[in-house]
Protein 1
Amino acid sequence: MELDDTDRAILRILQEDARTPFSEVARRIDMSSATVHDRVSRLEEAGVIRGYHAEIDPGSVGYGVSALVGLRVQQGHEDEALARLREVDGVREIHLTTGEWDVMMRVYAENTDDLRELMFGQIAGMDGFDRSQTMVILGTAYEEAGVPIPSHR
Amino acid sequence: MELDDTDRAILRILQEDARTPFSEVARRIDMSSATVHDRVSRLEEAGVIRGYHAEIDPGSVGYGVSALVGLRVQQGHEDEALARLREVDGVREIHLTTGEWDVMMRVYAENTDDLRELMFGQIAGMDGFDRSQTMVILGTAYEEAGVPIPSHR
DNA sequence: GGTGAAATCCTTCCCTT
DNA sequence: AAGGGAAGGATTTCACC
């Protein structure tokens, strides 16, 4: 789907605050709210907008620790290994990557004990992996929701 | 702030779809929409809900490549190094981590040429870093927005 | 936590350019 | 093909119980 500057302006607003009323979006981009509604519908249908999510403070719901985990997968075990990984509680992202690790995942745990149980109790015992490294996130210096949206193409 | 089961139910719904009308949230948790509104306001003010964001397909806005980048920071240069990093276009997350890398960041780029320019043109030339590794994301096997929200505590 | 009412917003249809 | 006006029905919001 081809996007124009108006579409990108809408995306920028909704990525920043997904609950902005269409009437206000309309005001800001100087169009009617019917048009905004129309464009948003098209963007949703085309898969440009995948969904709308509340961003929740992990600490408030009991997650005190997050980590990035690198994994080496044994040849031929890729599919089953990934299928089992996504069942592990706390795993929120699983990426296939180049470099030292075949898989990089992002996990959340209540505390370090929980994280240890997750890594040594669950993942270390799985077939299909032969090495891992846990990079505990000590702090986040910067985190912006979503992707940068260029003002034109 | 102390959360109860009702709060967590609301959070789960809004994390999944931030534009769910409060009237429907109310229906699902069997309360009035005024109460939902009241609770959501308190969750926002307490910082439990940090915001609402549209999830946008990176490919649709021109980002064909994403990567995780590990960096080693020279002692004593931490603050300035991080300050400069967050100015780099395409950088969306910067985490301080234990393990082989001091900093792990997530970047988006148009294509591999763009990513190379970002890494070799911009970051490699900066003071304060002495080693890096770029883990290009070849694919994402699983990605769930936000954090798991337990049904009780 | 709920009710009720006013203000606002969403949505659709239809008309215009 | 794209945008705007208008109108209904739904939703948000706020004062008060």
Protein 2
Amino acid sequence: MPSAQKITALRGMRDVFSAEYARYQAIQARLERHLRLHSYIAIDLPILENTELYLRKSGEDIADRLYEFDFKSRRVALRPEVTASILRAYVERLQDEPLPLRIQYSGPVFRYEKPQQHRYRQFTLTGAELLGADGPRADAEVLHLACSGLEQLGVTDYSLTIGHTALLEEFLNRLGLRKQLVNFLLRNMENLRKRGLKAVLESLETIYPEFQGAALAAESANANDAEQSQRLINVLREMTDSEAHQAVTDFLHSLNIRIAANRDEGEVIERLLRKIREDQQAPKLQLALDFMQRLGDLAGAPADVLPGARALAEEFDLDRDILMSLERTLNCLAEYGESPGRTQLDFGMNRGLHYYTGLIFELHAAAPDGEPIQLAGGGRYDNLVSTLGGSEPTPAAGFAYGIERLDSVLPSDNDRSPEPAVFVIPVAEEDYAAGIGIAADLRAQGIAVEMSIVDRTLRRSLRHADRRGAALVVIIGEDERRQRAAILRDMRSHQERQVGLADLTRIVVERLSEHE
RNA sequence: GUGGGCGUAGCUCAAUGGCAGAGCACCUGAUUGUGGUUCAGGCGGUUGAGGGUUCGAGCCCCUUCGUCCACCCCA
């Protein structure tokens, strides 16, 4: 026989066989039930979406991990996560639902990454979204839901790490850094701590060569050669956009300077401001990095971290509500009965998806080899509905579990694939009709039946039934055919008896219940 | 993207540079209507692909592809 080229599964894609598949299904079913008991309605959404859905806000890292292609002149992508689809569906079809709206989902997602242990290119998420509610109660519900789901599964030794994107974002926005730079810094918050200032600056220069000067200046940290003209700039730097705009307008007017009539005055001032601010990127970058380093040090038990966070917020005059709200969330979580010992705060954490606007969190537990792996992640994304064209700004938060990861953490209680309870062996061609009838009767009683369809000796058929783990075997041969009966053989006790066809189903049911 | 390991029968893997093997699975028989054991036999290979060194390459060298693992990132 000429052997053709073997076709293998794509890299990072896995075939999931019976025992493993049964475990996944059990995990998923338990989580879905858990979410349902919290009134999260299950919905199912397409796996294929418009590429645009993920480019808008998910972030650049996800964009180049997208399975994305042109199909009939349309850009489509396999979903790398489900939140965007949920909100897309909400904007499209569900905006007339009373809020808050609670939704759950389960299904595969695809990310083109280098596969390795506990990381596949296709994996399964079960997640929940809470739409139209914000504040500590909503955040705490989401956190509690994620944690208690793990407990439902029997994962007891897990840790909850909570971060927050708003402090840094507020600080960076007030600084007036260029949008690109702000995004870069937000993305590299965690890298700053893990790999240090130098590595972050290097990567900044690689990605955005135009900031090279700024990065260098920030590194040498003495970009402040004050000139006279610098004073106005420094004043402007401290202002918000609209304040600065007004100040420049007033200033020009007071000097009786007229902008050329063919150009929009506002636009000219915008440009002027932008120019001034670009010149100021270096010292601002320095400020930003200092702030980020201090923020990154704020990690540990909430009681240890919060005082430092408060002091930092005070020092930079950041919105007090952010931390107060976070504390209330933690208190509320305690009311749910979550043991505070496993909760960590980490202001240096950031996440791969860039739509988060507030609370972010991750759940970790130890894999069998002792290495901690992430089981779930989520957070708050209050702008995503608007980004996707929602008619009203709608706060939202959610999270998702990785089913395969959960399985790797749970003890594999060797539950075997469902075994056929009864194996039916017609000995000769003439016996098949009777065999089919018997099988149908048994199945009508909810009993799993495997029918022998291969030409084999009785000996080999029994051997096969045995290996399959059948509890009972029904044999129909010449004698039985004549007597309108069958042999019922108990594979465990090795005992067999002839049973009339009329009584067979009843007796099989009895025998199986004895086997239980 | 960077670094390492491994590609040999359907599966899991052996084989100092010298006849390509074992276990499992499948099939046949010992036992023609009775099982997980045993015994005998059978099927099964372009050693991932291409090139090089050599009297001789599964083994050494180069290239390439595949795959696993680590970094990175994440579920």
Protein 3
Amino acid sequence: MSEVSENVGALANSVFANIANKWALLIIETLGTETLRFSQIKARMNGVSHKMLAQTLRNLERDGIVNRTPYATVPPRVDYCLTDAGRELQQTVHGICHWTRSHLDHIEAARQRFDSAGG
Amino acid sequence: MSEVSENVGALANSVFANIANKWALLIIETLGTETLRFSQIKARMNGVSHKMLAQTLRNLERDGIVNRTPYATVPPRVDYCLTDAGRELQQTVHGICHWTRSHLDHIEAARQRFDSAGG
DNA sequence: CTGGATCCGTCAGGATACTG
DNA sequence: CAGTATCCTGACGGATCCAG
């Protein structure tokens, strides 16, 4: 209960903070079961900056969610794909994306209701 | 091909930004199938501030994910629970929380590997 | 092409105080 | 107890340049 649990809590918290953000979830969803290069990922995601993509990709790699494979060619080429753990996570992330898409009208209606109610 | 952030863009993006953050996901997970008061939610969540809880709760309510029920008693009392749509979402969110918990050691190992590799 | 570093503006988010 | 407003700091995130 004392220190061990707190450490686990802190770790879980930092892990959660790493994956519970827009870019991380979108990267995971974008990768899916594919293997993509840096520029391909960037092209498929709307409005992600060079910096944030590199940074988030790096975090995901560090957590063993994304697999990074650099090739010593000229010009350089780096492939990214989900690890086994990453693919497990992708299943649930996909669920969120699916939910978001299929509830867009529901949410838009709820917002209008809320806003016109003087919220 | 139709990614979350392609054509549907603006709305999907704002919806996604609302739920794809640490506090929103943790609130959804904390609520689960229960009905809790403001102070109860705050007590169950680790390190959330009064402000962020109120703010995130408000966003979730606006998007029709959380149901807010105020009672005109003294002292005031407000109950929160997930809506039907919210409970659907909670299923997948729970998947992420479950994944995080069951992969903590995997991730910790991956981090140590990454850090000691001179990352 | 990939990715790190730097500068810099914007805003998330914590602390506090006040209302009902 | 619940919610809002204010202030303020640090982190996020974009643009750009440099390196391999």
